C-alpha cells in the first residue's frame, strides 16, 4: 500500500494552532485501485509509516495546541484510532511492525492534559523516552529508555533499536570509561 498525501499550510481548524496541517489524509490501495480518506489529520513533521494493515502517524491533539499525539489507521477495518499518547513528530520518530507502534515521547508534554510526566524516574521531565503502543492490547508501554531524538528508531518483530547519548543520560553505557558516546541500544518486547 502506498500513502498519498495532500498537504496545505494553514491554521488548524479544530485547535486553532498556527502551522502546517494536512486537510486530507488519503491512502491508495493498489490491490483494489481505490483511494480512501482516513478522515485523519497529520502534521507536516515526518512521514506516515505503513506495515501490513496499519498506517501510523503523528496527529495534532484535538485538545491542546501545538502538541502531537500518536494515531493510526487500520486499512482492513477502516478504523481511525487517536491514542491520546503524546509523541514527538518528525522523520524516524515512529515505526510500526507486528502490531506494535514504537514512538518517542517528550516527558514535558506527556501524561494527563500534556502536563508532564517523569517517564524514566530520573526526577525531571526533560527527556525523550522510547515508548510503544500495542495495537492488539490497546495499551501503551513505557520502556523508560532515554533516546537520542535525532537518531530516530527502528522496530522489527521483537526489537526496537535506538540510540542513547551517554552525556544526556549521565552514565557510561558501553563500559569505555567515559560518558561522551552515542550508544546503540535495543528494547526486546518479546518477553
Largest sheet: 4 strands, antiparallel
Count of alpha and pi helical runs: 1
Helical content stands at under 10%
Q: Compute the average pLDDT.
A: 80
What is the CA–CA distance across the termini?
A: 30 Å
H/E element sequence: EEEEEEEEEEEEEHE
Number of strands: 14
Q: Biggest sheet: strands side by side, in what order?
A: 4-5-6-7
Q: Over all CA atoms, what is the radius of gyration? A: 17 Å
Any idea what the shape is?
Answer: elongated
Helix/strand structural class? mainly beta
Task: Report on the architecture of this protein.
By secondary structure, this protein is mostly beta strands. The protein has one helix at residues 166-169; strands at 2-11, 18-29, 34-37, 49-51, 54-60, 68-74, 79-86, 94-97, 100-106, 128-134, 139-146, 153-155, 159-165, 182-188. The strands form four sheets. Strands 4-5-6-7 form a four-stranded antiparallel sheet, with no helix packed on it. It is elongated, with a radius of gyration of 17 Å.
